[in-house]
Amino acid sequence: MDTSVLEPAGRRRRRKYSAEFKAELIRACQQPGVSSAAITLANGLNANMLRRWVNCAEQPESAAAPARPLPPPP
């Protein structure tokens, strides 16, 4: 029997969330008096992941550029 096709039991797949879902949760976190921990628990997310989404949303576009300088042209 070829077992290379079967996935091991209990293996998790990486979840993908839509931009609309992320934006909704980010807006909810930015409301005064709202706990980000409560939002993560209510949505079954990891608190670190939501905090990363919020931090990325709060950064200006220029800060999101790579920190490494580009190589000189040939």
Automatic annotation (TrEMBL):
GO MF annotation list: sequence-specific DNA binding; transposase activity
GO biological process: DNA transposition
SUPFAM superfamilies: TrpR-like
Pfam families linked to this entry: HTH_Tnp_1 (PF01527)
Stored InterPro entries: Transposase_8, Trp_repressor/repl_initiator
Protein name: Transposase
